[in-house]
Write a structure and sequence with these properties.
Blueprint (H helix, E strand, L loop, with lengths): L11 E4 L6 E6 H4 L16 E7 L10 E2 L4 E7 L2 E5 L2 E5 L4 E4 L6 E4 L5 E7 L11 E4 L4 E5 L5 E5 L1 E2 L8
Antiparallel strand pairs: 1-2, 2-3, 3-10, 4-11, 5-8, 5-10, 6-7, 6-9, 11-12, 12-13, 13-14
């Protein structure tokens, strides 16, 4: 059995250059031995689990849709606003929601405290034609998997991840 405790898992922070987007996450799957760059199925998990914290006034990332990835969310604390094709929905502790491939979504902190949730993703990035990609409807960009965990952001030609978002 592999075991990890959240208090022992390092936090990873990501912010956009102008500060509209930000998050702090703990990648539980990696702490449990997942090798994210490996294409060897014996070194990968069939899904990924992370604990994510979005600070007050921030969105996790731009509005996007995965081509192949499914994501299941469970809110732990705080209030969030979830944008999808039908508009926005407020979520709070105990709420669970799911996005299938092709369903655009965006999570934003809608309260005065951190918005915290678990996300489970089947994370199908396996390289080649079967890997996941993301489409960003607001800016007409694509994020395409390269090698390992690298990705290329394209808008006709290569561009920066936050181009057209802030």
């Amino acid at each position: 059995m592999r075991k990890a405790n959240l208090k022992d898992i390092p936090e990873q922070e990501r912010k956009s250059p102008k500060g509209k987007f930000g998050r702090v996450s703990k990648n539980i799957s990696i702490a449990l031995g997942r090798e994210p760059e490996s294409l060897d199925l014996s070194k990968r998990h069939p899904f990924d689990l992370a604990l994510v914290r979005i600070p007050k006034g921030k969105s996790l990332c731009p509005y996007h849709a995965h081509a192949a990835e499914s994501e299941l969310y469970l809110v732990v604390s705080g209030r969030g606003s979830v944008r999808d094709k039908d508009g926005t929905t407020e979520v709070g502790p105990g709420d669970a929601f799911f996005f299938q491939p092709g369903e655009a979504h965006q999570l934003t902190n809608a309260g005065d405290e951190d918005f915290v949730y678990y996300v489970i993703a089947d994370n199908p990035r396996s390289g080649g034609a079967t890997g996941d990609s993301c489409y960003y409807p607001d800016s007409s960009k694509w994020a395409v998997a390269k090698e390992g965990s690298e990705e290329v952001i394209m808008k006709g030609t290569g561009t920066d991840y936050f181009d057209g978002e802030e």
